[in-house]
Design brief:
This protein is mainly alpha-helical and 460 residues long. The protein has 20 helices and 2 strands. It holds the Pfam family MFS_1.
Length: 460
Amino acid sequence: MFFLNRLSQIAPPPLKHFFQPGYPFKPDRLPFFYGWVILAASTFGILASIPGQTIGVSVFTDHLLTVTGLTRLELSNAYLVGTITSGCLLPLGGALLDRLGARLMIVMAAVWLGLTLAYLSVSDRIAQALSALLSLESSSLIALALLVLGFVSLRFSGQGMLTMTSRTTLGKWFDRRRGFAAGLEGIFVSFGFAIAPLVFSRWIGVLGWRWTWLSLAGVIGFGVSLVGWLLFRDNPEECGLRMDGEEPEPVLESSSTISGAAARPFIQGVTRREALRTLAFWAITLALATQALTITGITFHIVDIGADAGLVEARTVAIFVPIAVVSTAVGYGIGVASDRFQLKPLFGVMMVFEAVGVAAMAHLQVPSLRWLAVLGLGVSGGCFATLTSVALPRYFGRAHLGAIAGVQMMSLVIASALGPTILAWFKQVFGAYTLGLYACSLLPVVALGLVVGMGRPVGE
């Protein structure tokens, strides 16, 4: 982390030159608004984070259990420790994002994620080699420790920095059209996330789980970092542009609606400390965190949940396809609506459908309830994909968006860490996931209570 913090100050002139906003081309010289390029790059960055997301890890879960000899609860706990640890690092990552800029951070996150995937692909062999060297009867304990280390790195680089950098960058380039841009992004993100388990499952069928991770490591570590360096720019102002591609009228934000301080330009935004003092921040964060917890728990154990319902793996994983269709349509609609209406009712829609969808997942063997789960998870997933990009910049401005998003992302990552362990505990104690899914379906109801009480963002 010290290296990251000092790189912008001590890097040699040639390296600094490569990360100048005008190199290798100047965005303000293009015949169209560069924000649309940022939209495409941001979408690409979030999709590239899938191997570091639970939905990308889920299809590798049973393979890791086989080669390491760990129990499902032990693997879930390793994922829990790794994810919580990575989440605690994200506020620092958010502050570095504000300081170093999105372009450098996206390159570093992509390379980091690629190296992590390569490490995880051979972690079981490393554990076996170390066990033989130490003359241990079993390699399970060492495998557990190595997986914890791998999950820390995987979640920090993938779910954390790659995702956060992409989303916050999009929020800096759009204002009046932010919801529309986020909705367009949500079309591809929702669909990509939903079909990822099916794609990875078939990929594994061709190459095997180990070579699938290695091939993803090459694509992300080299390809994504190169695209990120070429296309990402931190904000329109550094490129001589303005948000939405227009010259906006001066608009003052009265931060007294947030912290009681004097009026300031909206572009400046509020500090992280000011944002953390508001109910709005915690209501939004809890609403998104419940989605992260429940969906992460479900996707991590999706194959086993389907097995309990009497469904084969291919049929269980295929449930994400109709979810993708619903999420895609809803994500775009929510994006358009967020430019025209208050965010509070949109969060309410997400909470209600999440509760219904999670409860219905407990009965996948019933066709009608399986489709209700598709509807609930599809609608809530579409809302989540868009609202995570829209809410923070609307409420708190852009100046400290990375630092504020870092705290929120920490909360989401920690919540996502709890999901697999909670469901694994219910399965181990009660022999099924049913009660665990029912318990998780109550969480969005609690979050809805906070959402109802939060105020409006500036300008609404």
